[in-house]
Design brief:
heterodimer; A: mainly beta; six-stranded mixed β-sheet; five-stranded antiparallel β-sheet; 11 strands; B: mainly beta; four-stranded antiparallel β-sheet; 50% strand
């Protein structure tokens, strides 16, 4: 059974600081995704990571994937209030069609002034 | 470009009743996946439909069933509702390619009393 664990589950940050969210998964995977969810809203796709060593950046967020360690990180640089949300990583089992993802329980990020 | 739309947005049902939730996929997307998100948890994969056929199922009992129509819209049916079925039900569509993220609708909030 594929398990996805995120840590921390809750993160309170000061504006301007850097931090990293970790996502570990238990079995070999083809694809790893990061999503953002605002309270009461749906999920928004942030990144799709497909290969070992993949790194993607968008604004203050950077995601990386180490398939050997079965680990992905989401790094936040110089946090701003607008980044407050819950962040999920999701993993597809190897050799399966995309879209049958196993999600972590999410990291709720609060950025304080 | 029209995104993923779900109806209704909220629903209250009584234990033992049946419910049908509807989803219109994003234009051009032939694959629809359904997820259940309990409060404070990550989404859990229910099943996926591709070209009107079920294309994979998560760990949900047979009273969770679905349909996909020729226009790629989809329904999720839940029979014999239980209190634990109370959750946000998310529909997500994709192109079905391995580098395609899921595009989520805003969800249907189901409350079973």
């Amino acid at each position: 059974e594929l398990k996805v664990e995120q840590n921390p589950l809750f993160l309170s940050m000061q504006e301007g600081k850097n931090y990293t969210i970790y996502c570990n998964y238990s079995t070999t995977s083809d694809r790893l995704y990061w999503y953002r969810q605002d309270p009461g809203k749906s999920l928004e796709s942030l990144f799709v990571l497909l290969s070992n060593g993949a790194v993607k950046q968008e604004g203050r967020l950077m995601a990386s994937l180490d398939t050997k360690a079965r680990l992905s990180t989401l790094h936040i640089t110089a946090a701003v209030h607008d980044l407050s949300a819950t962040y999920f990583c999701a993993v597809d089992r190897q050799n399966t069609n995309a879209g049958k993802s196993t999600f972590g329980d999410g990291t709720t990020l609060t950025v304080k002034p | 470009e029209t995104g993923v739309t779900q109806s209704p947005t909220h629903l209250i049902k009584t234990r033992g009743q049946q419910v049908t939730l509807r989803c219109s996929s994003q234009s051009g997307h032939n694959t629809v996946s359904w997820y259940q998100q309990a409060l404070g948890q990550g989404p859990q994969f229910i099943f996926q439909y591709y070209r009107e056929e079920e294309n994979g199922r998560g760990n949900f009992p047979p009273r969770f069933s679905g349909l996909q129509f020729p226009n790629y819209s989809s329904e999720l049916n839940v029979n014999a509702l239980e209190l634990d079925d109370s959750a946000l039900y998310l529909c997500a569509s994709s192109l079905g390619r391995n580098n395609s993220p899921l595009h989520f609708g805003n969800g249907t909030r189901l409350t079973v009393t």
